[in-house]
Every structure is written in structure tokens, then in C-alpha cells.
Amino acid sequence: MFWNKSRKPSEEHIALSKKCQEEAEQLYRSGKYHCAEAVMETMRRHYAVDLPESIIGTVSGFGGGSGSGCVCGAVSGGTVALGLLLADKKKTTQLTKDLHGWFKEKYGVTCCKTIRAKNNKGICPIITGEVTGKIAEMLGRK
User: Are 64 and 73 in contact (CB under 8 A)?
Assistant: First the structure.
């Protein structure tokens, strides 16, 4: 496994994870970004500042479960962000699997439509922040 679940992240990385969570939620709430875009932009700002802001467009189609209500856009955007940040297929695949497993354990499903039916759309900014924070946490345990 690429990241060590039992390895405790440093206090600095815990603080960064919380900051990423809060920032992604705020970006979503601003109305300028949807779930996938907020995750990607936050990861770009903190882990890949050399990437242009236009990279956010690569995940624009994932909002609202890719427009059809399927896989949560925050998870989809997070998957793309992991691929960009890690640039390693095996590591990206493992962390993506771990991210989906964590999300499914927390929410029961990865389906946007199902989650929103149970919680209403008001949960989306919270989920966006939680996914972003989880990705930052995972990156801090590698």
C-alpha cells in the first residue's frame, strides 16, 4: 500500500489537511466552483502551484455526479487530482481505491443522487471539504 494508514501524520500535515478541508468547502460555497472543481483547485493551490488555474477545467464535467447523478463529483475530482499530483499509476490507483473505500464507509454509497436524496444538496459543500481533507491526510501519510 502506498500510504500507511497506521502512520500518524505530523501536526503540520494535520493542520494542512484541515486547511484544505475548510478551503474546499468555502470555494464550493462561493458559487464559483462546484464539488470537483473545488477539490481540484484546493489541491492545486497547496500541492501543485506550478499548474495553471485552467487545469480546473479538466474536472468541470464531474459536478452533480457527472451531470447524471452517478459517482460523487468530489470523489471524481479527487481522483483526477491524485493522478496529477502523484503521476504514478500504481500509487494513484491505490489511493483512489482507498479514497472510494473511505467514502463508501462514511456515506454508504458513492452515488451523488443517492447521497443528495438522503441529505439534500446542502451536504455537498461539506462532502467537498471532507474529500479534500482526506486526500491531504492521505498524502501526509505516504
Answer: yes
For the chain, what percent of residues have pLDDT higher than 90? 73
Give the separation between CA 73 and CA 7, rounded to whole angstroms: 28
81 and 62 Cβ atoms separated by less than 8 Å = no
DSSP letters, 90-130, are HHHHHHHHHHHHHHHHHHS--BHHHHHHHH-GGGHHHHHHH
Domain parsing of the chain, residue ranges: 11-55+62-140
Sort residue 31 into left (φ over 0), alpha (ψ -120 to 50) or beta.
left
Q: Are 127 and 72 contacting, i.e. CB atoms less than 8 angstroms apart?
A: yes
Nine-digit cell at 112? 451523488
108: burial class by Cβ within 10 Å (0-12, 13-18, 19+)? exposed
- Per-residue pLDDT of 59-91, as tens digits, reads 999 988 887 778 999 999 999 999 999 988 999
Tell me the one-letter amino acid at 20: C
Yes or no: say if 41 and 33 are a contact pair by the CB < 8 Å rule. Answer: yes
Q: From CA 86, how far away is CA 44, in angstroms rounded?
A: 12
